[in-house]
Specification:
The structure holds 2 protein chains of 2 kinds. Chain A is of the alpha/beta class. Chain A is 40% helix and 16% strand. Chain A has a single domain (4-264), classed as 3-Layer(aba) Sandwich (Rossmann fold), CATH 3.40.50. Chain A is built from 12 helices and 8 strands. Chain A has an 8-stranded mixed sheet with strand order 3-4-2-5-1-6-7-8, with helices on both faces. In chain A, helix 1 packs across helix 11 (226-238) and helix 5 (100-111) runs parallel beside helix 6. Chain A is globular, with a radius of gyration of 18 Å. The chains are: A alpha/beta, B alpha+beta. Chain A binds chain B through residues 146-147, 150-151, 154-155, 157-158, 161, 180, 182-187, 190, 193-194, 196-197, 265, and chain B through 10-13, 15-16, 18-20, 22-23, 26-27, 63, 65-66.
């Protein structure tokens, strides 16, 4: 088997990288794929709490790299799904404990057994980011409809291209459709025009995301949540399925214009 | 334009316009004053061959997908002999 490494990154912190990594990983596993999520945010680990696996950590990413355990020993299996694993970040070390070539080697090793390896990148553009994209076959950038997040996404898209890991695809997270309609929030169309990348998902702002993170249950498990549905759709698209974009904005014709834009834009 | 009619611009359009300029600047990372120098030198070279309207020359960086494009608009000097009607 040769799987695929998908890195989720953003530049700016707090836009939803960890939420996206947890939910995309969980949604792919719900579809029956073998998935390992890696938390590459050494020193600030969080993917474990979002997935609800924080009580089961024995070994971590740095233990694998430094040879204190076998790969399998550091892979925590999520018992709610047949084949979802987490490799947690080390909490008491820093980014310099791991190098990009360590990550590339780990990615290759995991790909031999997994369908998908999802890497949750730290914020920033330094060592941690370079570590996270080193093993990537595909990079997904996540942003919010806010000036600072869009600007940072643009920087990251440029860096991903410079590292020859492009073209990156984009998730726009926390879209508030009412605000977009009032002209008080950047719409998907605007952001795609500014960043000139392909869209892979739009996630509405949804209070269920916080509720599910409180419980350590990824929102993708929640059938009734719009954000959960959006993440399940993203997972399907990553797996090659064509899924129409959810109509978050009730403005007539927007979705037509958007899909036309996407067909004409990109590569 | 909208402000001419006394209507406040929506914040999303303000965000988009501001981002357009910021992204062009971020992507090209030109040293300050370079565009002015470039403009002056271009005018100098071109005026050796054709008369240009120096005041109206504009040079800017435009976005073209993920690439940047240097766009120069160089109006020629109106010929001195005008056709009168």
């Amino acid at each position: 088997m040769s799987g695929k490494v998908i890195t989720i990154t953003s530049g700016k912190g707090g836009v939803g990288k960890t939420t996206a990594a947890a939910n995309i990983g969980a949604a792919l596993a719900m579809q029956g794929y073998k998935v390992t999520c890696i938390d590459a945010d050494i020193g600030l680990r969080n993917l474990d709490v979002i997935l609800g696996l924080e009580n089961r950590i024995v070994y971590d990413l740095v233990d694998i790299i430094e040879g204190r355990c076998r790969l399998r020993q550091a892979m925590i299996r999520d018992k709610r799904l047949p084949e979802l694993y987490l490799i947690p970040a080390a909490q008491t070390r820093d980014k310099s404990a791991v190098s990009p070539s360590d990550m590339a080697r780990l990615g290759d090793e995991l790909k031999a057994e997994m369908d998908y390896v999802i890497v949750d990148s730290p914020a920033g553009i330094e060592r941690g980011f370079r570590n996270a994209i080193a093993p990537a076959d595909q990079v997904v950038i996540i942003t919010n409809p806010e000036v600072s997040a869009v600007r940072d996404a643009d920087r990251i898209i440029g860096l991903v291209e410079a590292e020859e890991k492009g073209p990156a695809t984009l998730i726009i997270n926390r879209i508030n459709a009412q605000m977009v309609q009032r002209g008080e929030m950047l719409g998907a169309e605007d952001i795609l025009e500014l960043l000139a990348v392909d869209l892979i998902g739009m996630v509405p702002e949804d209070s269920n995301v916080i509720v599910s993170s409180n419980r350590g249950m990824p929102v993708a498990f929640d059938d009734k949540s719009k954000a959960g549905e959006a993440f399940r759709n993203i997972a399907k698209r990553l797996a090659g399925e064509e899924v129409p974009f959810m109509d978050l904005d009730a403005t007539p014709g927007l979705m037509d214009r958007l899909s036309r834009f996407m067909r004409s834009g990109g590569n | 334009m909208r402000s001419l009619f006394g209507r406040k611009e929506k914040s999303a359009s303000a965000a988009k316009e501001r981002l357009k300029l910021v992204l062009i600047h971020d992507r090209t990372d030109l040293p300050p004053g370079m565009m002015e120098d470039l403009r002056d030198e271009l005018i100098e070279v071109i005026s050796r061959h054709i008369d240009v309207d120096r005041e109206m020359v504009s040079i800017e960086i435009a976005q073209d997908g993920r690439n940047q494009r240097l766009v120069a608009d160089i109006p020629l000097q109106t010929p001195k002999r005008r056709r009168s009607r």
